[in-house]
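Suppose you are handed only two things: the residues of a chain and a line of SMILES describing magnesium ion. What would the bound structure be? This form records exactly that question and the answer produced for it, so the two can be stored side by side and reused later without any lookup.

QUESTION INPUTS
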Amino acid sequence: MANQYEHLLTAIDVGSSKTCALVAEITDCGLRYRAHGVAESRGSRKGVIVDLDKAVGSIQKAIEQAEDIAGAPIERALLGVAGSHVRGLNSHGGVPFGTRPREIGREEIRLAVDKARAIPFPADREILHLLPQEFILDDQNGVHDPLGMMATRLEVRVHMVTAASSATQNVVTAVNRAGVHVDDTVFEPLACADAVLRSDERELGVCLADLGAGSTNLIVFLEGAVAHTAVIPIGGDHFTSDLSVGLCTPLAEAEKIKKVYGHAIPTFIPEGNEVEVPSVGDRPSRLIAQRMIGEILEPRARELFEMLRDNLRHSGLLELCVGGIVLSGGASRLPGILDIADSVLRRPVRLSWPTPLARMPSTLAEPEFATVLGLVFYGHRARTARGIQDDRWSSRLISLFARKGA
Ligand SMILES: Nc1ncnc2c1ncn2[C@@H]1O[C@H](COP(=O)(O)OP(=O)(O)OP(=O)(O)O)[C@@H](O)[C@H]1O
Ligand SMILES: [Mg+2]
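ANSWER OUTPUT
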């Protein structure tokens, strides 16, 4: 008997600051919002579980909220993976077929992709994604889909995203313990791109940077394909701890001050403005110049974008991002951050406002929910591309061809 909840698609994002579950309904007219739940993240830091029981508690809370609103149980979900343990690299492989041209079928593609992925890895790493950039048939490069074409040799260039197996497995285990089966794991910026990037940006060359709480995860698209992925170990929490140390105030107060009075450019803050800052221990609170907050935040913002710039430059991609840089994630909400990004990167920079689902509450149309929204768009696209199959490898191979906008 068909599962009565087959038309529901759930995504879970276990972030460093919030855990979010989003349920969408697949209708004849596309995806529609059904429910969501958000809980403060406990027990996870920078994409890694540090306290399993606490992480399970946060996931359960988010799931229960979503189940209540959805009026349906959440049995399976797509899970986002991110954090400093994720790496990206480009690889290349090919297969010769002899002297006579042969028609390229799925098997030939699979052989070429297998050659490209056959590079040595440390035993504790696993491949999250194998993303073809282009196929080369004999001497003809730039082929997006070689199915049915003739050649004597097939080569493929791929981008591989790998993750520490234990880190990924621990997030999966936490979700399983919260009673949900994980259908697939997806590198978060790859999913986020589905919610915030336009296909012309992907063709032209664009970098999407997800500024989370624990880290900044990035992905670069060139000519429609993934060219680069990386993680920069700075996120919104670093801004908060700088304020906590600089203003001598508890972390929770620093977080509030950052959100209410924070600005990445001190000179944009009127000179006479003052802010009351609670002290640690029993000491009385103090009044400080609001500009001081900007003076603490600006160097951290510069450092973040200098690391991003160096990462892109090192990969030879900075100049190729003609479509500019797109910022998502909660930390991108800091006023003035666009100006700093612009001055360091010298590329057009914009904030991301995720594509909404039909009937979605406006509170979800914010940069910190771009990833969980992207996960449902990604899940829908992969499901459409493969029908409802469950074979992991074949689903991965087929979803390779689910190029957005191609
Ligand atoms: N208005 C704001 N100004 C500055 N920072 C903000 C603002 N709103 C949220 N943030 C910061 O955004 C971060 C949370 O963003 P987000 O929800 O995208 O992170 P996450 O997904 O939980 O973490 P990660 O992606 O690193 O696992 C926090 O550091 C928070 O302080
Ligand atoms: Mg995040």
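WHAT STANDS OUT: The first strand starts at residue 8 and ends at 14. Residues 15, 210, 212, 329, 371 surround magnesium ion (ligand 2) (CB under 6 Å).
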